[in-house]
Amino acid sequence: MRDDFNQTKRSFDDVIYIAQKDTESVLDDYGNKAYCEPKKLFCCVSPLDGYTDVTAYGEKVTKTYKTYLDKRKFNDVFHEGDKVYLDGATPKNEKAYGSKANYLIDSVRNQNRKICIYFQKISKGSE
């Protein structure tokens, strides 16, 4: 069943989950914000390529993906720091929302008709 995060009725290549930061929750014992329940999103996710991406991300270019979403539907929905499940990761059987996520939203860039979202891989031991 598709929820309101889906862009169109057509089938996309990738199914990802995004856990947004819970803006209404209090901080946990470690000073971190909690995350909302992950929502499924059907979109096309692609690795970075091109001169400007390599210049901007350097060695991290191999650990970064991007996607383009409709600005009318997704404006101010996703924010830097939201957790993302890519490369086959799913939120199934996780105890805390976002605990099995393997990417973070690094950048949300508004464009004319689309929003470009960059996903950065979470390195183990960085949290």
Descriptive overview:
- The structure is a single chain.
- A hairpin with a 3-residue loop joins strand 6 and strand 7.
- About 5% of the residues have low confidence.
- The longest helix has 7 residues.
- A seven-stranded antiparallel beta sheet has the order 2-1-5-6-7-4-3.
- The chain is built from two helices and seven strands.
- By secondary structure, the chain is mainly beta.
Q: What is the number of E strands?
A: 7
**Rg measurement, Å:** 15 Å
Average pLDDT rating: 84
SSE pattern: EEEHEHEEE
Percent of sequence in beta strands? 25-35%
What separation lies between the terminal Cα atoms? 33 Å
Number of helices: 2
Label the structural class.
mainly beta
Q: What kind of sheet is the major sheet?
A: 7 strands, antiparallel
Strand order of the largest sheet: 2-1-5-6-7-4-3
Poorly predicted runs are 7-11
Shape annotation = globular
In helices, the fraction of residues equals under 10%
Question: Keywords, please?
Answer:
127 residues; mainly beta; 7-stranded antiparallel sheet; 31% strand; globular
Question: Could you provide a short overview of the structure?
Answer:
The protein is mainly β. It is built from 2 helices and 7 strands. The longest helix is centred in the middle third of the chain and has 7 residues, at 51-57.
What is this structure's SSE topology?
Blueprint: E1 14-19, E2 39-43, E3 45-47, H1 51-57, E4 64-70, H2 71-74, E5 83-85, E6 103-110, E7 114-121
Antiparallel strand pairs: 1-2, 1-5, 3-4, 4-7, 5-6, 6-7
